[in-house]
Amino acid sequence: MNDADLGFARKILAEQPFSNLVGARLIAFGGGEATLELDIRQDLLQQNGYLHGGILSYAADNALTFAAGTVAGASVLTTGFTIDYLRPATGTLLRSHGWVVRSGRSRVVCRCDLFAVDEEGAETLCAVAQGTISVLPPSNGS
Amino acid sequence: MNDADLGFARKILAEQPFSNLVGARLIAFGGGEATLELDIRQDLLQQNGYLHGGILSYAADNALTFAAGTVAGASVLTTGFTIDYLRPATGTLLRSHGWVVRSGRSRVVCRCDLFAVDEEGAETLCAVAQGTISVLPPSNGS
Amino acid sequence: MNDADLGFARKILAEQPFSNLVGARLIAFGGGEATLELDIRQDLLQQNGYLHGGILSYAADNALTFAAGTVAGASVLTTGFTIDYLRPATGTLLRSHGWVVRSGRSRVVCRCDLFAVDEEGAETLCAVAQGTISVLPPSNGS
Amino acid sequence: MNDADLGFARKILAEQPFSNLVGARLIAFGGGEATLELDIRQDLLQQNGYLHGGILSYAADNALTFAAGTVAGASVLTTGFTIDYLRPATGTLLRSHGWVVRSGRSRVVCRCDLFAVDEEGAETLCAVAQGTISVLPPSNGS
């Protein structure tokens, strides 16, 4: 991982109002991998006290996209993904780790593991995802 | 649609802190269909001014689950889904319409269309989803 | 549907050795939709006497691709899809109906319904799919 | 891997007429993993000389199911999966390797990597999949 790259990626994340709303932080970015974390706050839960599935899917979407960004740059667009929930997510924080499976010229395919982390730092795998990110062609002109 | 059912479903949605955070409203619930709406607010966007993909995936997840709930009751759990993004979502509100494709004893499969709606009420399809919802077995005893 | 188009699409299907092996026929092709059929033969089953899931996924893959071909021409490539199985498929034939949900410049998103059809012609929905088809850019030069 | 288990799993594969038709072989089975292989024969291709996507999806479906079978026994049923194609598959044989990500009481989630293998035995990753397998409850009585 290159510190300059991590700094640039964090700047993009900071420009996403929704990522700010849910408190997402970029922990690692580089070499085909990206890790996103967010605190499991009360206002991110569903009715049974678990992290809402929609937050897990947000964290999958964004980690997939940033992982692709490590190889394809900032002009990427997630075109779709699949998520399977494995266990209710509880604990201190959610860690979403995405990595590149195949990087093509116009399309990057990534996978993502989502962990609930408790106070002692123990990880529990709570969801897995797989998705496709489009690499936008360079715009003509300027 | 039965008004009592819609009221009950809205009560469950109101018990989801994350749904409150993003301002989701249940517009329709019954007969194998559920419609969720939320305002396209500034704090739900990504860095280019479009609705964040994570909000679309939240709205897909929840509309799929509520659609399943119309046939299977409150003891349901979304086990996974796929979403394909079609167009950037902009406008006034996001409308997520889920419906049941097949309702089995232990599993309900649903589809979902997500529309961006502009000030005049015109809908633009911006994402499609498909997912599986597990029906929890009745607990033994109490 | 245009008869010339259907004829052209059938020619492509006939050039797929695997489609010949499983006996696939193109029944309709045009206007954003394609329908594929194949007889539920003994050699396409799994161990319990139902049509093998792999045949259903083949029929989904191909109907999604041909549906995209109705709007995007022959230079298309399925990049991925999701299938959910709903019921065991038995009966006389499998009918796989794909249709375009969104046709973009470089990417077409389609859905597909798969029906088992009995001797009287009654359809039973046995699987649903959703997938993405890439439109290949015109090659430069020759 | 236990030889008895591999033998039992091969017996089930041999009872699938469609697996016989395409020439699938079970190479490994046990400890949460299963590997399936098949020769890249002429009659399994599509119109451009590559292995048909439908064969890749068959091999994903079956490797996912057998991987789940290593932890959940023979009473399993694939309920759905997602496949992303990465590269055209050519060469000598297709190797489909599935493994368990999470084994629950009623549901097993697996991933799968599909490799095209050339004459020298070199593997090229050509597709990735993720799917859910239901564990059937023991039948009552008879």
**What class, by secondary structure content of chain A?**
alpha+beta
Query: What's the overall average pLDDT of chain A, rounded?
Result: 94
Report the CATH topology name of chain A.
Thiol Ester Dehydrase, Chain A
Q: Regarding quaternary structure, how should these chains be classified?
A: homotetramer
Helix content bin of chain A = 25-40%
Architecture overview:
The structure is a homotetramer of 142-residue chains. By secondary structure, chain A is an alpha+beta fold. Chain A has one domain: Hotdog Thioesterase (Thiol Ester Dehydrase, Chain A). The first copy, chain A, has three helices and six strands; from the N terminus they run ααββαββββ. The first copy, chain A, has a six-stranded antiparallel β-sheet. Chains in contact: A-B, A-C, A-D, B-C, B-D, C-D. Chain A binds chain B through residues 12, 15-22, 42-47, 52-55, 57-62, 65, 77-85, and chain B through 12, 15-22, 42-47, 52-55, 57-62, 65, 77-85.
